[in-house]
Specification:
Blueprint lengths: L2 E10 L4 H11 L3 E10 L2 E10 L5 H15 L2 E7 L1 H10 L4 E8 L4 H13 L3 E7 L15 E8 L5 H15 L1 E7 L9 E4 L10 H9 L2 H12 L5 H11 L5 H9 L7 H10 L3 E9 H11 L3 E10 L2 E7 L5 H14 L7 E5 L5 H6 L2 E5 L3 H6 L2 E3 L7 H4 L4 H5 L6
Parallel strand pairs: 9-10, 9-13, 10-11, 13-14, 14-15
Antiparallel strand pairs: 1-3, 1-4, 2-3, 5-7, 5-8, 6-7, 11-12
Helix pairs in contact: 1-2, 4-5, 6-7, 6-9, 7-8
């Protein structure tokens, strides 16, 4: 009868450990059912679940493994596994898997303890924990701008709504962001990212900047905030604000466009995504006049926004064509996905306002970025504590993946 053994190895990491031990198993015809290894600060932890043809075949294997471990200065232990235990373990592989990502300006033990307690209380099991952010030198002249840890978990949450509420509480109290995603083939194969423009790609609401120049800043700002909170219809809010800008000289638009500040991490994020083969879109309730500037500077593939009507060098207070509101944003995202021969699960959508929710809701990864409370509460994912390039962690990109190939913007 087959004998199943769990082998655990620990000690100082060095080249050739796995090769030496596996050579023994190969020589005796053992079958490796599972294997996993982690190294933290040159300390090795290696586990192998192996099967030999019968109980009598195991002692010589164990003897030689003990000798090899001794030569390598490692501790090794053997734990027999009963067939029913193995059967239970195999059955676990059918459970849903999820990725939990925690990130912030820094991470200490407190948020990690709170997060893992929530995972435990929801009946989920942690399989793997990985640090995605880079190692921190003790003598670094500047502290790192982001820290991130990713957890692979197995199972179904006991109460998904309660889990999400608990994540939001931790985020609010401790200044971190927590994302919970299904671990499927689409998570590893996103191919399109669509951004809102104002207060997402850029750190401004353009229409508010125009209003300040026109002397109606406070009035327009009140309407903008009300619209972003979802209190009034976006189309109506846009018409009201544009009416206040009637007669504005096009030269003012030029000056505002020249001064638009990028959001932290925007340029780095898009540069990396473009090199990874992503298509990039701006789908905005703002204006194409300003979107074209960003399109040129960032290499954006698609731009959809509102077209300001300008006659004799003056803003008329009207837009040309259909207004890009929330439902239209979702429709445009669907059109781009179809044109690129993708599925919605391969799309990422990022925005901050209530009119972004339809787009965030249909994308495979919808992210409320530094969003209004109503948006953050209704989006599946939210980022508030880091820059836009924190999105790279949500798609599993490690700092070491970009360190040698891409420069920080």
């Amino acid at each position: 009868m087959n004998q199943i053994i769990l082998i655990t190895v620990s000690g100082e990491d060095k080249p050739g450990v796995s090769a030496s031990l596996l050579a023994v198993l190969a020589e005796h015809g053992a079958t490796v059912l599972d294997i996993g290894q982690a190294v933290i600060h040159e300390s090795l932890s290696l586990g192998m679940l192996v099967m030999v043809r019968d109980a009598e075949a195991w002692p010589p294997v164990a003897k030689e493994l003990l000798f090899r471990a001794y030569e390598l200065g490692l501790a090794i232990a053997f734990n027999p596994i009963e067939p029913n235990e193995y059967g239970h373990w195999v059955g676990e592989q059918g459970k849903p898997r999820h990725i939990v990502t925690i990130l912030g300006k820094k991470l200490d033990a407190t948020p990690l303890a709170r997060l893992t307690a929530i995972i435990r209380d929801q009946g989920l099991n942690i399989d793997v924990i990985t640090r995605l952010s880079g190692r921190i030198p003790l003598d670094a002249p500047e502290p790192p701008t982001m820290a991130c840890v990713e957890l692979s978990v197995r199972g179904t949450p006991a109460d998904a709504d309660a889990m999400r509420a608990a994540f939001l509480d931790v985020s609010s109290e401790l200044g971190v962001d927590i994302a919970f995603q299904a671990d499927n083939v689409y998570r590893r194969n996103r191919r399109l990212v669509a951004f809102d423009m104002d207060s997402t790609l850029i750190q401004a609401e353009v229409i508010d900047e125009l209003a300040k120049a026109a002397g109606v800043g406070e009035e327009v700002s009140r309407i903008t905030e009300s619209a972003m909170r979802g209190e009034i219809d976006f189309k109506e809010s846009l018409r009201r604000r544009l009416a206040l800008l009637k007669g504005l000289d096009v030269g003012v638009l030029e000056r505002v466009a020249d001064a638009l500040p990028f959001t932290e991490g925007a340029e780095r994020l898009i540069a990396i995504l473009k090199r990874l083969g992503y298509k990039v879109a701006i789908i905005s309730g703002g204006f194409t006049y300003f979107g074209r500037r960003l399109q040129e500077r960032l290499g954006v593939d698609y731009l959809h926004a509102n077209e300001l009507e300008i006659v004799d060098g003056k803003v008329t207070g009207n837009v040309i064509g259909e207004i890009v509101d929330g439902p239209r944003k979702a429709e445009l995202l669907r059109e781009i996905v179809a044109k690129e021969n993708l599925v919605l699960e391969q799309a990422i959508a990022v925005g901050d306002g209530a009119n972004d929710l339809p787009m965030l809701g249909i994308a495979g990864l919808g992210i409320a970025f530094r969003a209004k409370p109503v948006v953050k509460a209704n989006a599946r994912q939210a980022l508030s504590t880091v820059g836009l390039d924190g999105i790279l962690y949500l798609i599993g990109v490690r700092d070491r993946d970009t360190l040698d190939q891409f420069h920080r913007a």
